[in-house]
Design goal:
alpha+beta, Beta-lactamase, Lipocalin
Amino acid sequence: MKFPVLLLCIALSLLVIFVSPPAWGAGIPVSESPPEGQARVFADAIPPHGPSDPAEVEAFLDEIMPAAIARYNVPGATVVVVKDGRVVVAKGYGYRNLANRTMVNADTTTFRIGSISKLFTWTSVMQLAEEGKIDLDADVNTYLHDMKIPDTYAGQPVTMRHLMTHTAGFEDSSLHMTGVDPEDLISIRTYCKENIPARVNPPGKVSRYSNYGTTLAAVVVEDVSGMSFEQYLQSRILTPLAMENTSIREKLPPHLAAKLTQGYSFANSENKPTDDFILVIGPAGSITSTAPDMAKFMIAHLQNGTYSNATILAPKTAELMHARSFANDPRITGMCLGFYEQYYNGRRAIVHGGDTDTFHSLLFLLPEEQTGFFVSGSSAGGRGVRNALFTAFMDHYYPGKPHVLPLPDPSASARLQQFDGSYMSNRHNYARFERYFSLPDPLEVTASPHGTLIISGSSGPVAYAEVGPGVFSPADGTRPADGDVVFHTAADGSHDFFMYRNNPAMVYDRVPWYAMTSFGDGLTTVAGLVLASVLLWPLLALFRRMNRIPDPSVPNPAGIARWIAGLAGLMLLVFVFVLVPWISSDVKILTMYMTTQAVPAALTAVLTLPVIALVLSLAAALFVIPAWKSAYWTLPHRLHYTAVIVALIAMLWWVNQNNLWVFCL
């Protein structure tokens, strides 16, 4: 009996050797094992019909969700899965209030859904487009009654399609976007009229995520429909879909406020209750809802506009809304009309995330599979929970084939240097004082000697292997939710920005060397040392007077020149090294500036100082040529004066680069 057993063992060993993919040759096979904290899924455990069996789906969620909220320190979460027009499972996990130990009940507990609110705004727009009241490709100024978007790019107006695909070209701005008291919030009309952001690129060129653009679209809905956006939303979407536990109000009705989950921040190994943003831009982020209510909205979109007996969109309108409308590059996912695409395991999804200060959510739809889910968590770790659920859900119900990474080629290191540089998210402010204290950290891209590309940010360096021309995947084989990195090639052959394949609403622009913080810090340090040297002038004058040494300068013009240049230099020294750090770290002043209509007097005074210094510097610069022609001082003194003028110009360039002027408020 031993001999047959031995033959069987040898046969099984050979089978493993020939069936298993090789770890050499053309590339490295990437393990399909899910990240830590997620379920390990075996081929024979894959449900043949997706998430259809409530018991199986609940068991799956019970394996994923408790582990994810524990790993990411999230007090509470809610999730609902829909399939083929019905709710499969809706379930809560953890606590909606830690102090009271109140559990999350998916049926009744409300969560803030953040930017998923935008989908309700875009659905409203599509309803009016369906009725012929809005032309998606007409100038939005056609519909606005008492305001106009400036014609920054002549003949290239902003259209509703641009707003819906985040390609209007607006800079990002948080100015007056939030308030301190729901009772004092200005209307969305007043907000849009008084806070028009700069247009920093022509419309239709590149995606640039914009809360303002969505809020502006809601104002168009008001002007076209003749009712407030809240009334429109209630009468045309929430009531028809019987979303009785959903509201866009910041001050919730008492019956919904009592059900709202407490938001938390995690610090010092502890979750602490944290007040969430109070948003002026309600149509872009203020909706509060339950998992079952969100299921009704998802089913309506999966069924091309119909839920139960209610129809909120005609099928052709829904199909248009769900179709790709714009992409920064054909190799990445695209923007639909409100939704954005994601591809994972070869499946196309249309999705939207939502983030407030404490709540982090995801609405995820697979139209071809008539499947979707909504998930929300009550702290910053909610980002990790939604990503964990997303990858586990897809790998479990709709798995893909193992992908193969090519072996890194060290000889490619020199070629990969074309991608080297600093890159920064284009979602930031460009034209206001806000830019200085809200600029995102850059990502550093460098080619390694091993033939990989290293992208370094605040979370550390990550190595990427090239899988196609200008396309890179994590070299360790992981598959992040945002997907591969794709570098865009400009008309001149350079790489002007990169994108993450599954994040089509944002790009990372290559930052020129002179715009880097490190360059600005070095420039102000050197210029500051030169300007500090003007303190030598009065000391030298005092020394000459005490020792009865004749002043070598021509009396009047030379003295005036030094006084003006010295005063300008000292003002800029105090401004750059004392006042700017104070203002940028004063939470009270910045909060008042960002959330109220009143500009703090201290901020106005501080940002007026460089304007005065500019006038003095221009006056001081007028003396440079006469100083050399008339030999005001000895050669070393003339060189020093000229260096001071150059330092003044350098410091003022830095001030201008960072919008540190009173007229940028």
